[in-house]
Structures are given as structure tokens and as C-alpha cells.
Design brief:
Layout lengths: L8 H17 L3 E3 L8 E7 L6 H11 L4 E6 L8 H6 L2 E4 L7 H11 L4 E5 L14 H9 L3 E7 L4 E8 L5 H12 L14
Length: 196
């Protein structure tokens, strides 16, 4: 995987300090830590209801010393911002083209040298939706890595890493457990997120 701000030592340390200060000044708490057995994992990014989710996610990831990569629509990787978005850990996804994104993502996780966490918003959009896409689940299942229930609760100003979940292959039962965790979490635009 490409070099990012998470793998650039001096910049990473400076941005971590700045992120901690910013979040603390704005009343945010960062909770949890990544267990050693989840050094390669899929992180659910929920709720995803605002453009503000990306900068907050990056700051929280820095505070937690994660090495994240995240998926974003291809249009935000256009000139002149593409190189910056990739350096921030972004991976362009062209939603107009069919392809096996699950297999490619799982293969990248398996092949990665060292710790890496792939952040996937299950809603697939910032707009209002009641349907969660299941790509994150199948990426984890195929790569044989755990799913970390990451969250950002704007109402309580708390963000971090929740339980680590190992997919069983019974997607219906597993999704019910995962969604139950997010039932009380409020996104920036809370009316756009439903975990039921």
C-alpha cells in the first residue's frame, strides 16, 4: 500500500499532537485501542453522515496510532486533490464500474507488509439510507481478518474503537449483532443514520 501520513514518522508525530490538542479543546474523547490480534482489520466507519467525518476520522486514527486506509468516491481524487487524498490514506472507488472490489481489498489486506486497517462506511453514502452495504463484511471474511466496530458519536463527542468482531459467515446473524452496537450512536446528521 502507498505511503501515507500514517507511515511518515515526523509528520505523523506532529499531526498526532495537533489532533490530540484539537479534539481535547473541542470536547472530544477518544476511546479504545486496537488489540494486537487485529493489526490487520476492517474498521466499520459508522455513522457516516457528513463530510466532517473524514477529518475527524483521520485525527482519531492518529491519536490511536492506527495505519488506516479508507475508501472514497473517485471524484474526490481528481486533480488537484488526488495526491493529497491518497497521502491521507484514500483509495478511489469508481462506483460506475463493476469490478470485484471485495476481492481486491481482501487481497491488499493479506499482502500488506505490517499493520493496516481498512476503513469502510457500511452505508456507502453520507445521504440518508436504511440499507447497509455488506462489502466490509465480505472483505473481512475473505481476508480472514476481524472487523473492528469503530464509531463517531457527535452527540456525546466520543469516538474510537469498540468491540472486535470475527465474522462467522452467517451474515444475517452477524449483521444483527453489529447493528445492535450502533443503535445509540449519533452521527453529525443523526436523522440520516439508521442502524436497525
Amino acid at each position: 500500500m502507498q505511503r501515507t501520513l500514517f507511515t511518515t514518522p515526523v509528520v505523523n508525530a506532529l499531526l498526532r499532537a495537533g489532533s490530540r490538542a484539537f479534539l481535547k479543546l473541542n470536547g472530544w474523547q477518544v476511546q479504545g485501542e486496537l488489540p494486537a490480534h487485529a493489526h490487520k482489520a476492517v474498521l466499520i466507519a459508522a455513522p457516516h453522515t457528513s463530510n466532517w467525518d473524514l477529518p475527524y476520522t483521520l485525527m482519531v486514527a492518529l491519536c490511536l496510532r492506527l495505519n488506516i486506509h479508507w475508501m472514497g468516491k473517485a471524484s474526490i481524487f481528481s486533480f488537484p486533490f488526488g495526491a493529497v487524498m491518497r497521502w491521507l490514506g484514500g483509495i478511489a472507488v469508481d462506483r460506475s464500474k463493476s469490478g470485484n472490489l471485495v476481492a481486491a481489498s481482501a487481497a491488499a489486506l493479506v499482502a500488506a507488509d505490517g499493520p493496516v486497517q481498512l476503513v469502510v462506511p457500511p452505508e456507502g453514502t453520507r445521504g440518508k439510507t436504511r440499507h447497509w452495504k455488506t462489502g466490509f463484511y465480505y472483505i473481512a471474511l475473505e481476508a480472514k481478518v476481524p472487523i473492528v466496530l469503530a464509531y463517531m458519536d457527535y452527540e456525546r463527542k466520543v469516538s474510537g474503537l469498540g468491540p472486535v468482531f470475527t465474522p462467522s459467515g452467517d451474515i444475517e446473524a452477524d449483521m444483527a449483532v453489529i447493528k445492535k452496537f450502533y443503535a445509540g450512536v449519533k452521527g453529525r446528521n443523526a436523522d440520516q443514520f439508521a442502524a436497525d
